Structures are given as structure tokens and as C-alpha cells.
Amino acid sequence: MRLAAPLLFVGMVVALATAPDAAPAHAQDKKDDKKKAAPKVDPKTFIPDAATLKQIKDKTEELRKAIAALKQKAVADDMLVEVEIYLKAAENIVRFEEWLAKDSIKWTFATLEQGLSRAKQAEGGKAMWRDAPGKWAVRAYRSRVDDSIQPYAVLLPHDYGKDPKKQWRLDIVLHGRDAALTEAKFIGTHQGTAPKDLGYVQLEVYGRGNNAYRWAGETDVLEAGGDFVTSEFLRGGPEIGTWQVVIRGFSMGGAGTWHIGLHRPFFFEVIGPGAGFTTTHGYIANLPKELPDYQEKCLRIYDAHLYAENAFNVPVVAYSGEKDAQKKAADNIEAALKGFKEPFKFTHLVAPGLEHQMPKPWQEKAEAEFKKYLTAKRKTPERVRFVTFTTRWNDFAYGEIEALEKHYEKAVVDSTWTKDALRITTQNVASLRLRRLTDWHPVPAAVSIDGQTVATKLAPDEDLFLSKVGGKWVTGRTDADKLRKRHKLQGPIDDAFVDGFVVARPTGQWKTPVKDRYQEAAADQFTAVWDRYFRGTLRTTKVADYDAKIDGNLILFGDPENNPLIAKVLPKLPITWTKDELVVNGVKYDPKTHVPVLIYPNPLNNNESYVVINSGHTFKEADLKGTNALLYPRLGDWAVIKPAPTEKDPAAYEVVAAGLFDENWQFPKK
């Protein structure tokens, strides 16, 4: 069997290509993303007059009071957030002045009325809106990344739940880029009823806006899916088929489907990307032919064409318009598979004469292809072959890759598991773990790995760890107590914002104005960008309140003099940093004019999470406004920067040096 996708969603907290039979949730891209870059929308066109704005604010205050009353009654948080999301939607559109579409005012009033209606229902302690077969229902969850409330929408078939034994297919649908997308628009465009013949549950993700489902946007996909499946299980609802999970989307949603589906091929029974992009080079206009080495290597995190061979594990049903420039996305995957001799299932539907669109007839053709792979019963694959370039994506169905010999180089686990034998071949893998799952074959007494036989003496419920030592495989975790790049602890800097994190800002007074003002400006900029573009509020902590056991990744701005937490972690970091000396990678810099930036295992948490110094995401607001392919790491694992503030960008800097740590989190030997 393919690993149960909903179960994996739950374990991890786990375009709109409009469904063949559902109305579009919001506008899809109409032109090539790289050509239009940041669409121009005049927010003044649809801005409410003073009287209307006052009505919105009064109604918002009414909803705020209703929610406060629910909190007084200690309403369960999972129900409360599904009321609070309406308040967040109304507050955001006002404070950001996101009157970006002609229906923005209408959506805002409707959002407030629906929020008040839900608050009334929640007084009785029941989320009745969840039990509404045949209708759209806006749902929400509290994200583990930043404690923000994020929406998603679910469309249930009319006969959902009538047959208690029926298991339902789940389609996770990713929307296209929409410059006018807000929470209020997302809520306002997910109303109405389902087609009479809808035969599956359709879950549409907000994805924190427009980020091509990268970084926290990808986490949103997993969390939304996990929240829905968990809530259905807890309320005793119908069973979501653990084998019939589809991920699909068009345009930006296609790009998200490409990378999520090929990074996690065992989560889904079939993936359906429409258009999108699968490479950085060749897609971004005017991108230099060759970026700095550390940036080039980090492109291998999200460039989906590098993961094309994972189509061996999951069927792909791609769609393109014949005249669409984004047809190149699927062409890139096909080209990458051309020399691949292993069997795979890849269908590329091409609509003659069409540009960037996916009309209903072609949606129906894609649906017909999906059904060919959605079997009534999932079978255990005898063989899996998984490719990755980073331990961030490490699940190969039978287990996980624990460590690589070298990050950003191609790694492969090819495993054949029969009733009484297990044979594994690897490439660029340093250690792995085999799961002890009751619905898989038990680990045999001996495993063949890379032609070597390894004895396995394990308890019935014990996982098997295999590590390579001196070119030979042994059982056990030989580097468990050593600093090593591994899953969720492999960098680069931007990886810290995929999981939960907390920020600690500088507390001291300025002593070197240019440098210290940069640190403050960088923290301010990260806060503002996260708020507007990732739709959340940064969790912050004071030195005395920081709890390494529960606070996740630790993001520190400042220096050893004005941030005590930096002073506390500094002795365990591979740099020297005092008021008189800064040494990074063996090079001395003036600490009055230079600032170190890095990600590293957090010594305050036994190296179980990250600590980041003086950085949020390493791409800028301009990149978030432009094509989503620009959201790649700019600084690797470490950098030395020289602040160069401007009136427009007080957090601007010049990169003096930057790079990646080796597999043991040290500067590579020169």
C-alpha cells in the first residue's frame, strides 16, 4: 500500500484549477506569471467611503465582542478559530486597505454577517456548519508555524455520510496566483452548493496567499489537510479513503502540485498539475545564467524537474494549453524522464490552440485520467524508488532518509520489499530508518543494502536504523549524538520558517548606529513582510520567557551586547563575535560595520531545532510581489553582510561573503 496520506497529514499536522464540477473560487492567472510579474491594481478604485467604512468597523466590533463572549464560555479552540477567521478577514482587509476587487466591500460585509451567525451557533457548543453535505464550508485551523489562524474551504458531496461504510476520495486543490486574493475574498468566493454528481470531498487551500506553496505555504497545505481529516475522525464522520487522495491545481497551483506531489509522492494516489513552473532558470526573465554557488545549490530544493523520477511512485496527469508558455513546466518533467529507464505513469494532456486556461471539457478529461489510478483497494508496492536533494524531503514510504553524504547532490533509495526479503540500494545516503508498521512486511532477520548483508536483531515494535561507517553499513544511529545535517535540521536559513518559530529582538541601546539600526530595521521588515505576505503575526519572546522545549526555532536579531540570547548561544556557534572582533570562516571583519547572518542547530535545545541570527526570509518584499519562482534562498546557511540602508529600504545590505555549512554544520575546508 501507499502510505496513508491522511494519516501522514495527521502525523505532521498534516487554480484554482477549478474542479471539473465546481465553480471557480477565484481568478486564475490569465497570462504567463513571469511576464506579468506584479499585477497593477489600484486599491483606490474600490475603497469604501467614510460612511461605509464606519459601518464595517462597527460590525467588526460587534463580531469582536461576540468572540470575546465565546472565549468567556471556554468554547473549544478548534471551533473558536472557525469563527475568529471571519474577524481576521475583516480586520485584514481594512488595515491593509486591500480593496483590490469590485466585490471587496460586499465580501467584507458578508464575511462579518457569516461570522456573527457562526458565533451564535457556537454558543451552543456545536460547529453545525461542518455537517453540511452539498455545500461549501469555510474551515480554519491554528497553525503550528506562528499560531496564526488560517482558512481553508471544504465542499462535501450531497450524499456525504449517508452510507456509513463508504470511504471518500479527497481532492486537495491549490489555487492560482491572484493579486486581489484576501481572506475575505477566499471566504466570499467559497459559497453555494455542490454539483449533484460530485463524487469526492474537495478541499481548497488558502496557502497563506501567493507563494506557490513554498515554505510556510507548503506547511499550510499539510496542516489544512490534517485539520480536516482529524476533525472528521474525532467527530465520528465518514472515513476519508486513505488511498484516494489527489492533489491538483492550475498555474501557481500547478507549480505547487508539481513540487509537493514530487517531493512527497507517497502522500497521494495521483497528482494533477496544470501549467505552473518546474524550474527557476528558464522561467524567471533576466535571471543571470549562473547564480552564486550556494544559491544554485539551493535551487535544488524547489526545482521540481529534479524530482521527476519520483513519478515512479505516483501517477502524474499533467495538463497544458498548447499555446501556453507554462506548458514548459510539463515539458521539463518529460525531458527529465526521457532517459529514465524505470517504468512510470505520466500523462500529458495538451489542449490544441489554448493558452493559459483549463476549460471544463479538459477538466473532465483530466478527471477521467485520475479515475484510472483510483483503485478500490490499495496494494503494497513491491518496490519504491525515491529521489531527493535534501533531507527536508526524506520519506521513501518504507522509512526516512536520516542523513545524506552531501546535501544538494542527487540521493536515491531504491528498495524492494517482498514477504521475506528486503533489498535496498542507495546513492549519496549516509543513514536511514526503516519503519516498523503493522501493515507492512516485518523487517527480515537480515537486510541486503548496497550488496552488503546486515543482520537485524530488533524488538517487534522497534524501527531499524542503518548507518554508513567507513563505507560499510551497520545497524544503529552512529551519529545520534553528533552535529549532523538531518531532516528539519539541514538549512538553509529560509527553512527555519517552515515549522514553528519564535523571534527575540535586540533589547540594548545603539552603540554602532549603522549596524544596530540595520538589526532593528531587519526585524521590523521581517515582521511586516510576514504579516502581509504570509498572513500571520510573528510570535515573540523575551529572554526571561524563552522556553527552548516548546518555542521551536529561535530567531534572534541583534548582537552579543544587545541580545542576551545571542550571547548565550554564541559559544556553540562556529564564529567569533565580540565588540572588537568578528571572525567568520577564518576571515576577520570589522564588527562595527559588518553583521553575521546564519542558521545553526540551537544549542539551547540540544540541537533539536534551529537558531537563526539576524535574518527572516532571505528574499525580499519585491520578490513576493513578483513571480513566485523568485522565492528561493539568497544567503544559504551563513553570510557576512554590510548594512547599506536607503530611505526606501532601511534593511538593505551588501553581501560580503556567504555559503553553506558542510554535513557536520562546519565551514567547508578550504
Keywords:
single chain; 670 residues; alpha/beta; 14 helices; disordered N terminus
Present the secondary structure layout:
Layout: H1 5-11, H2 33-36, H3 50-72, H4 77-95, H5 104-122, E1 136-142, E2 149-155, E3 167-174, H6 183-188, E4 201-205, H7 216-234, E5 239-250, H8 252-263, E6 270-274, H9 293-302, E7 316-321, H10 328-337, E8 346-351, H11 360-371, E9 383-388, E10 399-404, E11 411-417, E12 422-427, E13 429-434, E14 446-449, E15 452-455, E16 464-469, E17 472-475, E18 501-504, H12 513-533, E19 553-556, H13 564-569, E20 575-577, E21 582-584, E22 587-589, E23 595-601, E24 610-613, H14 621-625, E25 638-643, E26 653-659
Helix pairs in contact: 1-7, 3-4, 3-5, 4-5
Structure report:
The protein is α/β, with parallel strands linked by helices and 670 residues long. It has 14 helices and 26 strands. The protein has an eight-stranded mixed beta sheet with strand order 1-2-4-3-5-6-7-8, with helices on both faces. Strands 18-19-24-23-25-26 form a six-stranded mixed beta sheet. The protein has a five-stranded mixed beta sheet with strand order 9-11-12-14-15, with no helix packed on it. Helix 3 runs parallel beside helix 5. Residues 1-39 have low confidence and may be disordered.
